[in-house]
Amino acid sequence: MDEWLACIPLRNRNNLNPLSFSLDMDVNETRAVELFVKLTEENISILDVNYNVLSRDKLFFIDSYKKYNDIPKIIYDFNLNTDIDVDDSMVEIVFSLVAFPKYKPDNIECPSKKGKSEKFMLSGAKKTPSIYQLLSRSGDN
Asked: How far apart are CA 76 and CA 98, in angstroms?
């Protein structure tokens, strides 16, 4: 994980995706998600999580929330100029790096990109037990 994070450009450190980590580092997707969730725990706090609501076609960002329970059931879509119902297929889970390394090692070899991963959407992520843990924790904060 350290190696992968050290190679992420600064502009991407607020939009980390466990599926990208899984693909780049050849790690099982479930394990990658579990690791990302673990790194959000209060006693570790290396990553933070955000829930981005996207348009139904997933082309436009609508709004972002720190807690899953804060996502409204209905939201205004400026592109459609109307209120729309929000469902889990419209919610992208993104992580941001909050504990930055003090330095980047000189001898690190960045892993090569092995392709473009899909968005990490809540509808698919809910199948992972650690995501349920994250969602239940997000309502308590």
From this structure: 30
Question: What pLDDT, in 10s, does the model give residues 75-105?
Answer: 999 989 999 999 999 999 999 999 876 656 6
Q: How buried is 50 (Cβ within 10 angstroms: 0-12 exposed, 13-18 middle, 19+ buried)?
A: middle
Q: Which helix (H) or strand (E) holds 89?
A: none
Which residues in the chain come in under a pLDDT of 50? 140-141
Is-contact 117 27, C-beta < 8 A?
no
Cβ-in-10-Å burial (0-12, 13-18, 19+) of 81 comes to exposed
Extents of the domains making up the chain: 2-138
DSSP sequence for 11-43: GGTTSB-HHHHHHHHT--HHHHHHHHHHTTSTT
Counting Cβ atoms within 10 Å, is residue 37 exposed (0-12), middle (13-18) or buried (19+)?
Answer: buried
Nearest in space to 31 (alpha carbons), one of 19, 40, 43, 42: 19
Contacts of 124 (CB under 8 A, 6+ apart): none
Q: Which amino acid is at 19?
A: L
